[in-house]
């Protein structure tokens, strides 16, 4: 009887470990995706901002700045998520 309980406990412990590993792996993948999206938004924003400067289009320039800021925010959030795991 004692061995059965001990064995059950070990199995439950292993299942919990496996679930935790699946959870953290999934969050690490999310972090990488978010970081890549943030970087892409920043590059796109910089390009729009430059285009706005070259064409003397203040709206396009502002769009670029906003998009760049969104990318920086997304990247910061991604780094915070990474630090959690």
Automatic annotation (TrEMBL):
InterPro entries: CsbD, YjbJ_sf. Pfam families: CsbD (PF05532). Residues 1-85 are annotated as: Disordered. Residues 35-82 form the CsbD-like domain. Belongs to the UPF0337 (CsbD) family. This is CsbD-like domain-containing protein. It comes from Bacillus taeanensis.
């Amino acid at each position: 009887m004692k061995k059965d309980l001990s064995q059950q406990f070990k199995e439950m412990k292993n299942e919990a470990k496996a679930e935790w590993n699946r959870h953290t792996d999934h969050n690490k993948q999310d972090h990488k995706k978010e970081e890549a999206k943030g970087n892409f938004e920043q590059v796109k924003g910089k390009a729009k901002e430059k285009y706005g400067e070259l064409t003397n289009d203040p709206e396009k320039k502002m769009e670029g700045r906003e998009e760049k800021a969104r990318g920086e925010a997304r990247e910061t959030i991604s780094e915070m998520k990474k630090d959690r795991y």
